Amino acid sequence: MAELGELHERIRERSPLPSAETETLIRTRFARVPQRLAFGLRRWGLDRKAVLDVGCSYGYCLAHFGPGSVGIENHGEPVEFCRALGFDARLLDVDTGVAEVVPDEAFDVVWISDLLEHLDAPRLLLRDLATKLKPDGKLIVYVTALPRSRVARALLRRRRLEPYAAEAHHYQFTEETIRYLVERSGYRVESVEVPFFGRLGRLLRAHSPRLFVVAAPDASSRGLLERAEARNKQPLLTS
Length: 239
Known about the structure:
This protein has one domain (4-232): Rossmann fold (3-Layer(aba) Sandwich).
């Protein structure tokens, strides 16, 4: 994991952005390791893994991943910023596909954080990312989720922590629907985890506004996916 002080100095030395914007970025994005990333680094050793960071933004997670990691992002300025810092970042709109920009079987982990809610076709992206993983690779998805408990929802609203942002999100997931999406994209879900609450996280999973889903590509799930896609492309028979 990159030391924050050293990372801040590198940003100041290499950033292509104006000084004021650079300082704002350090203060808002790089002042600390995000909680979800800190959990991922401890739980799955991502600082030692080659990670494909899907939707890497300015690289505040990418900076802490292991050798061979690559970030993909659909905005030019963050990609330029990441490259200036020495990270491998590639300009790509994931809604158009990842086949030609990202090599197959190159990554230990595909990391998707706070992205699926914003996409037009999240299932298609997840399907296409399976081939980018090494044979024993894992998909790790971090999403906002609607708690099952009405009490938990009310507490979140009171603290202005709504898990669904209508102005930005196309989808609102629950634990069940994100699991279903991942499975119907050709994966076997291995675990659903909560990045806080400590040992109580597993018990409170259904009531958490944030979830990690860990999955691996699965041949039987892929076969089901392909049969469903083929069936859906058949013309409807009308009487």
